[in-house]
Amino acid sequence: MSELEKGAGHLEAADLGADPLQACAGWLEDASVRSKVSFANAVCLSTVSANGWPQGRMVLVKSVDRRGVSFFTNYESSKGRALADVPRAAITFYWYDLERQIRLKGGVTRLSAEESDAYFRTRPRGSQVGAWASEQSVVLDGRGTLEQRHREIEARFSGSEVPRPTHWGGYLLAPVEIEFWQGREDRLHDRIAFRRDEAGTEGLWLAERLNP
Predict the structure, then answer these.
(1) pTM
(2) Which of 62, 99, 190, 201 is positioned for an S-S bond with 11, CB 3.0–4.6 A?
């Protein structure tokens, strides 16, 4: 049994390497593949509206790579509107049984139409139809209205591929800070924080240990 599977761990910056995004991808893989955590890619996405109100909600991360963390949603939803007004956000992974957490914050931009199209094609057809049917975050007069729109969209694209609606697509959070949290006894947890080199050296991160 690995240290990860025991849920106990001693964490040093050296254990995470020089690239925290690579370490983040590694922790995600450990949680989802090795430890079989259900929906290990579920995160709390926190945004701030134009009037300063914070809001969090759970979304599914689709990839973590050298650019950052990507997720997909309706551009016209409450989170889409918040990101249009204030294109910055925070993402939090939390795996309770593993006593691990990762927090990231940074600027957010839309992924290219090509990337959004490619991912949309991998979604189940029902989810593709749902992306057209749901006016996400808009007041709904009853579930029957939603189900009727779903039937109409199904009929509209019957026998053909469902294209990606222009109001739906991907976002990329490019982090400027990433913090790794490892639970320890007596609440003396390990916290290793990485931040971008203020001098602007490309690819360089500075690591610091924080008090728990």
Answers:
(1) 0.92
(2) 190
